[in-house]
Structures are given as C-alpha cells and as structure tokens.
Amino acid sequence: MKLSRRHFLSSSAALVGVSALGTLCTRTRAQEAGASLQAPLADSPTAAVRRLVLRNVHTEESLDVEYMRNGCYVSESLVRLEVLLRDFRTGDRHAMDPALFDILHAVAGRLGADPEFHVISGYRSPRTNALLHERSSGVAARSLHVEGRAIDVRLARVDCAALASTGLELARGGVGYYRSSDFVHLDTGAVRRWRG
User: Fold this and answer.
1) β pairing state of 72-73 and 150-155
2) Three-class DSSP category at 180
3) What residues contact 49, with CB distance under 8 A and at least 6 apart?
4) Which of 93, 91, 69, 96 is nearest to 150 (CA)?
5) Strand partners for 176
6) Which pLDDT tens digit goes with each residue over 139-179?
7) Distances 3 to 10, 15, 17 between C-alpha atoms, Å
8) Which of 16, 30, 52, 89 is 20 to 30 A removed from 1 (C-alpha atoms)?
9) Is this model's pTM higher than 0.70 or not?
C-alpha cells in the first residue's frame, strides 16, 4: 500500500510539473531572464508561432520544431531542443534558456531568412568546457554554454558576418564572430561583442 501511494504521489508531482512547464508564457520567462521579447514581435507578423530548424553538425541530428505557440513556449519542443543541443561528447543534457531560441528566430527574421541553423555547440558539461578551456584561450572558463544560455551556429544561406552583425543589432546578449572557424556565438548574457 505504501509503495502504490508513493508511486501515486510521485506521478502526481510529475504531472503538476509538466503542466506548469506547459504554461510557460513569453512575458513570465522574459521577466525571469531579464530579456526583452519585444523585438521578435515587431520582426515577424507570425510571432505567435515561432519555429526553428536545427541541425547538429556533430551528431547529424535535425529538428524542425515550433517552440512557441500563441505566445507560450511549448514544453515538449523545449525538451526536444534540449536533447538535440546536448553535450555531444558526454551525452549530458541541460535545460536551454528559451530566450536563446527567440534570439535565433529574431535574427533569421531580420535577415529575411528561413530559421535554419547548423549548430556547432549548444550545451557543454562543466567537464567538457574545462577540457576545451585548457586547449584554447578562446573558450571561457565560465562559459554560458555550461548554463544552457549560449549557442554557436551558422545560418543556412547567410554569411556569418551578416549573422553576427544582425545579432549585434538586436542587443540581447553576447555576440562572438569566429571568422576563421566560420560560426557565430550568441548568448543571453550581458550585451557585448568579440572576435575569435
């Protein structure tokens, strides 16, 4: 009897958690993250539905997903994005900041491009980040990748210089342009810029 009651209580708690996540709405998340979501609304007439197409260059996995509907993040889509953006070296996963997806969506919209991104790096486990930091001075010891707040990407059919420039125009976080490696780092941290 105790075992079935415990199972019932844990199942109920899980359902409540999923239900709460399913109602994660734009304004609430923006306030928590300190991010402004006004620009995407102005950038796209269909901002109530936001879609991304991501391809992980390391695992070759692809995902075409509507991550926002009617101004609310879609919990199932956020989980699918978390899986795609996992640390490919260790398999570790971490919740990604949904404001990061809004940045991707807004950048593509401003460039008049389909939101199709090739992902070089999403989440990084602390172990992976420490290893990369030892190998390269270009990897921050306290990278926002470890917090699920950064992504390194290329936008299909768009020059990375244009992608970086547009990311800077949005002024929603950090933008790093790595010309020799041909990718752009975008994050939801403080507004700043650098070249790698």
Assistant:
1) unpaired
2) coil
3) 66, 68, 69, 70
4) 96
5) 185, 194
6) 787 899 999 999 999 999 999 999 999 999 999 999 999 99
7) 11, 18, 21
8) 16
9) yes
pLDDT of residue 35: 38
Q: How long is the chain?
A: 196
End-to-end CA distance of the chain: 61
Q: Which residues pair with 73 in a beta bridge?
A: 68
Token pair in block for residue 61: 């996995």
Give the total number of structural domains in the chain: 1
- CA 6 from chain centre, in angstroms, equals 35
Beta-bridge partners for 178: 183
Q: Cα separation of 56 and 153, whole Å?
A: 9
Helices (H), the chain: 2-22, 26-33, 38-43, 75-84, 98-111, 126-135, 160-170
Residue with tokens 């001075």: 137
Kind and range of the H or E run holding 62: strand 62-69
Token couple for 99: 């404001």
**CA dist., res. 40 & res. 52, Å (int):** 13
Place of tokens 């391809």: 55
Rounded to 5°, angle at Cα 184 from 48 and 133: 120
The sign of the dihedral angle between the CA atoms of 58, 64, 69, 75 is: negative
